[in-house]
Amino acid sequence: MADSVPVRCPTCRRENAFTPPTFPCACGAPLTLPVLRGGVPIEILHRTWEASWVEVRCEVCGRQDAWPAPESGCACGTVVRVPITPVPAAPLVPDGPAGELPGPDTATRPQPAPRPAVGPPPERPAFHPVTIRTARDCITAAAQYLKWLGFSDVARAQERTAAGVDLRGTGVVAQVDPTTRATALRDIECVWLNGLSDSAVPVSFSLAGYARDARSRADELHVPLFVMDLTGTPQPVNDAADELISNGGRPPG
C-alpha cells in the first residue's frame, strides 16, 4: 500500500491523511498516482470531465495514460483535488560509443518484457478514434473499433443486460466499462459466459484498466482486453487482444 500524505483542507484548515490510489497499468504493474508533497489542494466546486483526469507515466513500462484525478474528502464536507507531480518529459538518450556497456543504472533498472508489435492487416484503413467525453462516447468508440476490426454489424444493445453486455454483432459480444474503477473479475467472467452462450468472441473495453485477478482470468479464458484513453483509441492489454487485432472479424487461419 502507498504511504499516506498530509492534505490540508482549504476550508477548515484540518490536516487529513490521504493515501494515493493505485491502479493496474496495461503492462500489469501497479501504478500509484504520484501525489505532489506540499502541493496546494484545490476545492472541487464544479466537476468537469477534463479536470477529472490526470496524465501519469508508468515507471515500469514508460506508458503514459490518463487516470482518475485523486480526490480527498474532509469531515467538514469539503472535497479537494490533490495535485500530482507533473509528468516529466521523456529524456533523450544519446548514442554511446560503439561497444560501450550500459552503466549500472541501466543494467539494474527492471525492464518490461517487450510486447510484439501487432498492427492491423495492410488492407485495413487507419482507425479514426472517437474522442471520449462521456460514458456514451466510450461505447461509441468501442463500437467503431470493433467495426474497424471487421465486425461490421456491431450495434449497441437497446438496454444493458444484467450481465453487462453493451455491444453485439455477428460473432462478437462486448462489454464497455466507462467507470473510474478497475474492471473486476466478475465482469470478465460475465462477458465470457455471454460469448460462450452466443458462440461469439467476448471482448472487454475499460477506461480505468483491470484488476489483477480480472487480468489473470481473462488470460485463462482467452478474453481480449482493451484499455481506452480519452482520445478513444483502444490499446490491447493481452495476447488475446493482439490476436483479435491480427484476425479481426475473420476466423483465424
TrEMBL record:
It comes from the Bacteria. Residues 91-125 are annotated as: Disordered. Residues 111-124 have a biased composition (Pro residues). This is Restriction endonuclease type IV Mrr domain-containing protein. It comes from Streptomyces noursei.
